[in-house]
């Protein structure tokens, strides 16, 4: 058992050593896909860049690249979905922070976009990032046209009314309400989980020789770790310090949001998060050592401090 743990930790650490490579790669790809800040309308383009380059761990692009590693894919194929999904994520954060939504002043330790610029510019910047994501997918030169079409549909579903936007609507409607644990997890699977799931599945769409069982395993892994991510976020909102988590702590409670720890308590929320992590990792058993990068990221999602 000790030897297995050492071997696993060594392989996991090897992905940790590649984080800087992947974050630099996606940063370069994001920069190339965004309009230059000096190109008119300058204020809008500056705001779009502020939204995208305002810090962040790039968990979703990292999931794309880690899944690509698991499947032995050329990382150049993975750039388009990694960039597109990060644009959608950035767009969602700008909207989440608006006064009509969560009314946040701080994001990633910096002023939110509508505070740094103004509310109208924030709305327009987010609105511009969303179609840019689909432009990136449609223009992926090294991806077959049929696969590009499937990727566009995957990301569109993940961010629409049956995905992230629908989850956010449910979140707003649930303020001050008491939901069951099942209802909260369903909301999380849309609000946060849909885009995380798309990050994993997008990479699996780029290979044609993946068995049905493996497709299903990656699908289940993405769905499970997506819910765990949001439960961990809820825990950090209660336990984290503003300076560490990069946003105002205790915001969920002040807004009367329906959260997992708010319903069952912090200890049971931690237990559920750990249970979801175990379930997610079990889905990767058939991939052996090829999935060690995904295992590292899954643990990072549950054990992170911000």
Write out key terms for the chains shown:
single chain; 306 residues; Farnesyl Diphosphate Synthase; globular
Name the CATH architecture: Orthogonal Bundle
Distance between the termini: 31 Å
Number of strands: 2
Order of helices and strands: HHHHEEHHHHHHHHHHHH
| Count of all domains | 1
Q: Can you count the helices?
A: 16
The CATH topology annotation reads as Farnesyl Diphosphate Synthase
Described by the principal axes of the CA atoms, the overall outline is globular
Major sheet: arrangement of strands = 1-2
Largest sheet: 2 strands, antiparallel
Write down the CATH class: Mainly Alpha
Mean pLDDT across residues: 91
Structural class: mainly alpha
Helix content: over 70%
CATH superfamily: Farnesyl Diphosphate Synthase
Can you tell me about this structure?
There is one protein chain. With 306 residues, the protein is mainly alpha-helical. The chain has one domain: Farnesyl Diphosphate Synthase. Helix content is 73%, strand content 1%. The chain is built from 16 helices and 2 strands. It has helices at residues 2-33, 42-52, 59-71, 75-97, 113-116, 119-138, 145-159, 164-173, 181-191, 193-204, 212-239, 242-245, 251-255, 260-264, 266-282, 292-303, and strands spanning 106-107, 110-111. Strands 1-2 form a two-stranded antiparallel ribbon. It starts with a helix and ends with a helix. The model is unreliable at 1-11 (pLDDT under 50).
